[in-house]
Each structure stands twice: as C-alpha cells, then as structure tokens.
Specification:
Blueprint lengths: L8 H23 L4 E2 L2 E2 L1 H5 L6 H29 L8 H26 L5 H7 L4 H10 L2 H26 L2 H18 L3 H16 L6 H14 L2 H9 L12 E6 L8 H4 L6 H7 L3 E7 L5 H10 L3 H4 L8 H4 L10 H7 L3 E6 L15 E3 L5 H11 L5 H4 L23 H14 L4 E7 L41 H31 L7 E5 L5 E2 L6 E2 L14 E4 L13 E7 L3 H8 L28 E4 L22 H4 L1 E3 L5 E3 L3 H10 L2 E4 L3 E8 L2 E8 L16 H17 L2 E3 L2 E3 L9
Parallel strand pairs: 3-7, 3-8, 4-12, 5-6, 5-7
Antiparallel strand pairs: 1-2, 4-11, 8-11, 9-10, 13-16, 14-15, 16-17, 17-18, 19-20
Length: 754
C-alpha cells in the first residue's frame, strides 16, 4: 500500500492560519453580534428581509470572513518564511508558535485601535460587556496608540529583517520567491486589494510548488517592479495635475461643511480661542454672515436645498430616505444644482466626505466624482457583520500599516471619526485637479453624533475623571426617557466641543495645503454647516430635526473668502448681521460667475450685500423640521405632533435601487409633510407653526431677549400675526399648499413629478 506523504510545513501553516481565522470568526459571531445602529435596535427590521435578501447576508459574511482570512493567512505566510532561516524549529513547534504569534498580533492591533478610536468599541464595552469597560479606561488613560504601533512595526521589521537576511545569504529561487510573496501580500494589504489578495492566496500553493521552475532573472525583474508599484499611485496623483489648464476667471471653488456645526461654537463668536483657532484665522480673510440659518435640520434635505437653491417642500426631498421619484428630482431640469451649473462653464466637480456624506452617492447632485460612503441595507448589514469581529476591526481601521480599504463599506461607520482619511482624499483630488477649474465639496461628519474625534482629540474638552457610558461617545436615542445628570450633560457637551476642535484641525490642514499649493489666494472658499445641534439647552434635548426651538439647530456658520484679486476683498466691512438662508448660496455662486438664472428662487444673491451690515428691509427666512424617528417618548415635541409610525415601520428596502432604504408609501409621505413644524424668523423674532391632533399651535419668541425660546409671546402684539401671514403665503407659494382652517395642506404630488 502506497504511503500518503505527510503535509508540507507550509501547508500546515496555511491550515493552521485558516483554522485560527475560522475559530475566532465564529467566536465573535456568537458572542459579539448586535443589531443596534446609532442607538436603535434594527434586529427585527433586518430579520424581515432575511428570506427575501438572503444573498445580502451571504455576501456580507463572505466579504468579512475573506478580509479576516487574507490578513491572518498573510501573517501566517510571513511568519513561516521569516523562520525559514532559523534552524531548529520543528514543524509542530512552529505551528504552536504561529497560534501565539497571531493572537499576540491581534491583541496588539486591538490595543492600538481602541486607544485611537475607542468609539468604535463603545457598544462592546458599554452595552454588551460593560464589566470590561475598565479595560478600555486603562488603555486610553495610560497609553498612546504610538506605543503599540511601534511594537507592531518592530515585529514586522524583525520579520522582514530575517527574510532579507535569508535572501542575502541564499540568493536562490526559493529565497527570491519568499521575498516576492511577502512584497505582493504587503502591496495588497497596503492598498486594501481584498479580492486580488484572495485570488493570490487561492493560487499561492500552486505557485509555491512551481517556485523552482521560474527563471531567477524573472524574480530579479518582478521584485523591483513590485517595489516600484508601492509609490506609483502617489506619483500618479502628483503628476496628474501638471497637464491641467488654468482659467483665471474660473477660480477653484471649495464648499467646506461640517455636519451639526453650531455657529455659537466658533471661537471668534464664543470667545473660546482654543476651540476653533484655524476657523478664527480664516474668518479674518472672509465675509462673515452672523445670522445664517439652514432650511431644514436634517442632512439630506438640507444639502438638497443648499445645492438646488429650492426648498425641500418644492423639490420634495423632505427626509433622509426619499423615494426614487423624489430623489430623481434633484439634478433634473427643474432642480439643477450648483455642481451642474459650474460644469456647464467648464468646471470639474467632486464631493468628498465621511459617514453623513452618504447622501451624495444616493442622488444625482451633479458631481463628476464622489468619494464618500454609501448607505443602504447591504452596507448596513455588512457593517454590523464586520463590527462583530473584534480582531478584524483593527485591521479595517489601519492599525497594521494598511488594510483600511479591505472593506470599503466600513468607511461609512458612524463611530469612526478620523478626519485624516477624508483630508487625504481632499488633497488627492486637489492634486489631480492641478490648476484647472474645479469645484470641490468637502463634508466632515466628526461633529455629528455620536461625536467621535480620534485620539487625542476626544480628550480635549472632556473631563478625565468622568467614567460613565458617555466617556467617548453619545448617540441620540429618540425613545430615551431617562434624565441625565449635570456631569453627564457636561461630558456630552465636552465631546461635542472636542469634535468641533477635531473638525477645526481638518479645516486647518486643508487651508495649509491650499497655501502650500498656491491655491488659497486664488480660490473661493465657503465654510458652512448643514444644521446645528441641540445639547440639552432648556428642554430641547439632544440632536437635530425634531423641533425648531432655540438658536442651536438652525443657526449655522457661513464664511465666504473670495480670491485675493477679487473686487470684493477691498470692501472695508466684512461682517453682515442680517438674516440669511442656506438657499442663498445657489444664487450667490451663479451670480459670481454671471450664470443666468432662468427660474424664480426663494433665496437671494449675497454678493449684493457685501460691504453692508444689514438688509435695507428686514428679511425673514424659512425652516421646517425633519422626520420624527420615534413615535414614543416624553419630549415636548412628541406631544406637539401629528402621529405616524416610527421610522422602522415607514421604511422599505428597494432592491432595484441598490437596496436603498426608502419611504415609498405616498400616504406616509403626505402625512410626514403635513405634520412638519415650520417657522419663519427675522433678525428679532421667530414664529413657529405647529400642527397637532387638536388644532394648530402658534409660538412666537424674541430671539434677542429669549434665545432659548422659553416664553411664547404670540398672544400679545401684531408681530406674530404678521409673521404668520408671511409663513402661510411662503408655503402656499413654494409648496403649492392649500389651507383647511389654520392647517397648511401640502400640495398634491403631481403624477410624473413624483
């Protein structure tokens, strides 16, 4: 009987790495799976699609497991090859040591990652295994991420040192093959090439057996070529823009925005010189609009309003989950965007952003290039699958000299507030654009809840002796009824301020880069936000979009810097105190470039007031609430609303639209529009329209003497009646609304339009 040959040492290494990967994948799948997203349990919501969209779950499992497999098998191969030059290691001993090596590397990566991004692990340490929270405190209090990163680099350096010594000593086909394999795996890992790496590992055993049949000169050609490939993408970006052309009359335009950035948090407004030093410096070169307001404090409709210059009640994108018919109106002939208008005169257009920028791939805003995460049921499922894998998360967040692009869907993780990633994309796109005419929109989400700046910024304005569940992050839970104490509120506000500081660093890096590239003086730079944020002022709670009380949720920054040779830079006054709206940016940009406006717009060009301090005639601007996510809770606005189901019951997953989550029921669309609170405000007063089941409520507040809107003065005086008439006429005009008693009835959605 023929004897079966024993498995080769390399085959045993590969099988051991595979077994290690399978064991820990299943372990974390069983003990660390959660269906909570941004504080909301979506378990039942996902389960209802399990039968219909089983392929989505299968794909998620395959991709996440593949990323773990590529990383751990790659480590195993490097470990195996680096020990080839060390005599005396028996195969069994080498395998035992491999398990220890993989486990130690995973622990080092985890330690590095939880110090750098503790928010990513917040659910694990505070909600699933709260008894382990002290472990998180220990690492973030006593170590820097650089400590563990240095150990990881040293280990890799020693391994490559052994490998290079082996190549130098032997100079054989075998040694050259080992080096080439290590370089290929490192290249795939560095640039996150998951599928090529998976294919390479699949055929690797065959290549290993054929290594001695390849001519040595082939190795001597391939190895330098692979080494050259590492800097090639960077060189390509650097030289790409050299061949672009410059049109002096078409300066670069940068629209820079931070989600949830409040106007009153800017240092030159609050007097806190520590919080936004870079924005404060930029303000000295800019026109400042001190009373600027968003039209709707929710990201998707707010951006739709800003980029089209039309109200959400007109273009019908009124919530975060528009239907296909609604979102297709954006960028149509009736609702062109700033990007489309600039493209008509020769501009290249790009959008870059972190997790809240997922709106840009979901509608046609007119950008040639979108470098932002997407959001749909597939992405959501894949993120939850990946988040369960505690040993894989450090790889996906770049703790091991790359790997951060293995699963691109992780880019939209709300707890990953590292702004350096999108700043680097900004620099890349700007380098590629060279001196050509281009419009670049940059949208940072670090200030959006759960407020997740990376190390060390999450410590900037928080209390080091606070050790509660809000130490690193705070989601908005619309169903929460518990009252927070003063320490918890101070901690949450400290997290928000730390996030503002983190965005200011992003902005400072962008400005410095533009100065280094001699673009700053040539460019139009617009700094703003999509909406603000309530942070437990009075009874306002936390978050945005649910109500219109106070200054915090609609009042946002607006700073505009023009090219240094512009006629506007010589104007002596650069501060405007009149009330302005986000729909003013569309006509302002078009006016600057003398692009004809063929439609009536609700906004006005701000170029006409540059150099002035106020409007000649006081102006009122419009805002409305977003969609309510929950139908329960004891917040004041819950008792002031027309009821409709919670957000999970409203949604539908639409497979033919890339599994996007949409509100497609027309009855719900109409109810959501009918239930919205609406307001108009001028420089002194804010009037709020509130439809309820028992009738319409009206509120009027003195913005100057009562900025938190605590005392309703509508019953007294004629100001409220004047603003009420202003609001009703505005809504009837721009929404084609009707009126039943005092209720405003949304205009019927015309067939073919929606």
């Amino acid at each position: 009987m023929e004897e079966i040959p024993a498995p080769s040492p390399l085959r045993k290494t590969l099988l051991a790495a595979l077994g290690y990967t399978v064991f820990f994948y299943l372990f974390f799948l069983l003990f660390n799976t959660s269906f909570t997203i941004m504080g909301v349990d979506v378990g039942d919501y996902l389960k209802q699609y399990l039968g219909d969209f089983f392929g989505v779950y299968l794909f998620s499992t395959f991709k996440v497991f593949s990323a773990s497999l590529v990383f751990h098998v790659g480590l195993g191969i490097l470990f195996h090859y680096s020990l080839e030059s060390i005599p005396g290691f028996k195969v069994t001993k080498r395998i035992r040591l491999l398990f220890v090596y993989l486990f130690v590397m995973d622990l080092l990566g985890l330690a590095h990652s939880i110090i750098l991004y503790p928010q990513i692990y917040g659910e694990f340490f505070f909600y699933r295994y709260s008894s382990l929270a002290s472990v998180l405190y220990f690492f973030t209090d006593h170590f820097s991420p650089g400590f563990f990163f240095t150990i990881i680099v040293l280990i890799f350096s020693v391994q490559f040192g052994f490998l290079l010594h082996f190549v130098w000593k032997e100079k054989t086909k075998r040694s050259f093959f080992y080096l080439m394999t290590a370089l290929v795996l490192l290249f795939f890992h560095q640039f996150g090439n998951l599928y090529p790496a998976l294919v390479f590992l699949t055929i690797f055993p065959v290549l290993h057996r054929l290594k001695d049949r390849i001519h040595i000169r082939t190795y001597l050609i391939l190895i330098p070529l692979i080494v050259f490939l590492f800097p090639f993408p960077f060189l390509f970006d650097f030289f790409y823009g050299i061949f672009s052309t410059n049109d002096k009359n078409k300066p670069p335009v940068f629209l820079i925005s931070a989600d949830s950035l409040r106007y009153d948090k800017l240092g030159f407004v609050s007097g806190n010189k520590q919080i936004t030093p870079n924005i404060d410096a930029f303000s000295k070169d800019s026109f400042i609009f001190h009373d600027h307001h968003t039209t709707i404090p929710r990201t998707f409709p707010s951006w739709a309003d800003l980029l089209t210059g039309k109200y959400s009640m007109t273009h019908k994108v009124r919530d975060m989950f528009p239907s296909k018919e609604e979102k297709n109106r954006i960028g149509s002939k009736e609702f062109p965007t700033i990007a489309q208008k600039l493209k008509e005169i020769g501009y290249k257009t790009s959008a870059i952003g972190s997790f809240a920028a997922d709106i840009f791939p979901r509608a046609d805003f007119g950008f040639d290039e979108v470098l932002a995460p997407n959001f749909n049921a597939k992405v959501m499922t894949l993120q939850r699958t990946a988040e369960s894998q505690l040993f894989l998360l450090p790889v996906l967040t770049g703790s091991f000299l790359g790997g951060g692009d293995y699963i691109e869907e992780m880019d939209g993780l709300s707890t990953w507030g590292d702004g350096e990633r999108i700043v680097n994309r900004f620099k890349k796109v700007t380098r590629k654009s060279g001196s050509s005419s281009f419009f670049l929109t940059y949208f940072s989400s670090v200030v959006h809840f759960p407020y997740t700046p990376a190390y060390p910024n999450y410590k900037k304005f928080t209390k080091p002796d606070y050790y509660g569940k809000y130490k690193y992050l705070k989601f908005v839970d619309p169903t929460a009824t518990d009252k927070l104490n003063a320490d918890e509120i101070d901690q949450i506000r400290g997290l928000f301020d730390s996030s503002v500081f983190a965005f200011d660093e992003e902005f400072g890096s962008i400005v410095q880069f533009l100065k280094d590239k001699n673009l700053y003086d040539k460019s139009i730079i617009i700094l703003t936000a999509d909406h603000g944020e309530a942070l437990y002022e009075d009874i306002h709670g936390q978050g945005h979009g649910e109500h219109l009380r106070g200054e915090a949720v609609t009042k946002v920054p607006l700073l505009i810097k023009f090219p240094s040779d512009s006629k506007y830079t010589s104007l002596p006054n650069k501060e405007f105190f009149g009330t302005t709206s986000s729909v003013d940016l569309f006509p302002t940009v078009l006016n600057y470039f003398s692009i004809p406006i063929k439609q009536e717009l609700p906004g006005v060009s701000l170029l006409d007031v540059l150099g002035k301090t106020e409007w000649e005639k006081d102006r009122a601007v419009y805002s409305e609430t977003g969609i309510w996510f929950s139908d329960i809770g004891d917040h004041f606005f819950q008792s002031q609303r027309i009821p409709y189901p919670n957000i999970l019951e409203l949604h539908q997953v639409v497979p033919e639209e890339e599994f996007q989550i949409m509100i497609t029921d027309r009855n719900f669309q109409e109810t959501i529009a009918f239930a919205k609170h609406r307001s108009v405000q001028n420089s002194r007063y804010k009037f709020i329209y509130i439809p309820t089941r028992k009738g319409v409520l009206f509120e009027l507040y003195d913005r100057k003497n009562d900025p938190l809107n605590t005392k309703n003065i509508f019953p007294s005086g004629a100001i409220g009646l004047s603003l009420k008439e202003n609001l009703y006429s505005l809504v009837k005009k721009w929404e084609d609304a009707g009126q039943a008693g005092e209720y405003l009835l949304p205009g019927t959605l015309r067939n073919g339009d929606l």
